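Example record used in the benchmark description.
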Amino acid sequence: GDPVEQLRPFTPPPPEVRKPSRRWVLPVGIAVVLALVAISIPLLRSDDDGSVNVATNSIALMNAEDGSLEFSSELGQRPGASAIGYGSLWVAEPDRSRVVRFSLEDGSVVDTIGVGASPAGVAVGEGSVWVANAADGTVSRINVEINEVSQELPAGSVPSGIAIGDGALWIADSVGAQLLRLDLTSGETKAVPLAGQPSGVVFTNDEVWVSVAPAGVARLDPAELSVTLTKTVGSGPTAIVAAFGSIWVANHLDGTVTRLDPSTGREEATIPVGEGPNALVAAGGSLWVANAFDDSISAIDPATNTSDTPVQVVGAAESLAADGGGLWLAVGASATEHLGGTLTLSSQSEAPVSLDPAVLYAGLGWEILSITNDTLVTYTKVGGPDGATLVPDLASSLPQVSEDGLSYRFPLRDGIRYSTGDPVRPEDVRHGLERAIALSGDAEGLFDAIDGAKVCHQEPSTCDLSDSIVVDDESVTIHLARPDGDLPFKLALPFAAAVPTTIPVEDQGLHPVPATGPYMIAEAGSDGIELVRNPEFRKWSGAAQPDGFVDAISWRFLEGRASAFDRLNAGDLDLMTDPPTPQDLASLQAAHPDRVVLSSQPFTVFVGFDVLKPPFDDVRVRQALNYAIDRERIGAARRTDDPAGDVSDPATELPGLLAVLPLHPGAAKRCVVGPGSGSSPPVDRGRRCRR
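Model output (structure tokens):
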């Protein structure tokens, strides 16, 4: 994807400040949402109130035996994954595409090494430090003698977890749903398909373990490259480690850690910890757990399989590493550090003409609906590539799928209410889908596998999907006419938002439907949109719908980039959603290079053909065009594009083509669709795709 500029025109308040700010940037994108990862420690007692006080964006060394804080060192940027080796602590900075090397003696910075985009995993071994770069599909090899990257290796689509063993790198490719074995001698890469998206990887003496979403782990034979065992654990497994004679798995969505027998895969215990566990490490005779959603860390006693009450960290522990009895914390900003105030935004585009989830198909509108309305499932509200992970939202778990792939059952959460105070009911989920399919050709195309969807769209006034979307007091079950493995991902789009049955099957325009998220639309017009807190919102999932930072959001439209940039610099604006002009960006980079962050964000660019007419009615023609595209050259060309330039003509976007997808006859289209902005969906630039 294109690099997107994220501007920091003002120096943030010092880490020790703990007071509400007038304004703070709330992440409002569907996939681009700031994730403030937290941690819990049951034994640490550094402050009078039992919390551990570590400054924002720092690393800290703690005594894992008695919980004392030995020292901390400021990092200055949000930390990510970390590992210990070669006498140093290595900490990734995912927003800066670099790794910082710290001394284990005093926590001082030894060096800073540039790596690939969005480093997500760090492993140490075979004489080097290895960094999985999630945003550009590579692994960087750091030469520890000179502190420089000596090699860049291809590593699938979105590499995240990484481990070393048996002369190879073992890499979890989350989007590719596979575990990669990269031979360090030959450079050959082999892939093992997995049943879901992998996350964490650990190599033991004679086997490889990998956590696999939505709720499993897999054990592989490293010689045969075959899966020898699969085991169901908790929901949303992430980190996985081998310690104390067992395999331990952090269940991110359950708030638990599962302990497994490595020989049989038998579950030995499931231990409650803090909210959103996402990192594990053994230190000082305990298994330590970082909890992402409650700013705490926990310690598990392996002798009793129990954990004390999580202890708050004044700051969010992003990762853990261990050196004997020393526990190293990489601490980011706390989700509660800056609360209140009004977030002001500006866009040069026009305001959405409708905010009805049934008809809205535009990036800016989806960013708004992502924090006002909810679907059965959604993408986790974290930054970076992990934001593509599917998590339950109104549903209490990911769907139970029938063996033939034709039925998806979603158990529902209790107690969720609309901004009106009315409860969310199972039939509201069905009504939301019926409205979208009836009113939108785009929605009908996405959900055409649902039995009766085509008739519903053709005859909106009589649309009734009660036979294919079956509800009871506890669940929603969707029956398909044909298998559609992408259905859960489509259900994460605003088209599938729950809507009260009292809302008619008519486009509501700028009159908002009742909200379920942390914010509700108070006022909307052609010049701007105002959002305020939803008084009925109670956080039910930190992954799916976390509480917001600010009390209100004020979004203005049709403002030029130069004007918005001037207001940003003057302090009258918090966020401009468009990149600045090339001149303004250059001046900012020259004056404040540390305040410009480039982040790669993947999106899909595609061309649709009318497959009912020559020459595209011949599948060989479509295949020939696919084969003719030099994807490597296109990728290189896109990486050198001017990130601040405008693209207004769809024809000029064709050099960014990533794939040409043959469409089935029932989905014939004649239009060119360009990329969205950042996390936004693809944008139809003036040529609406009509069926």
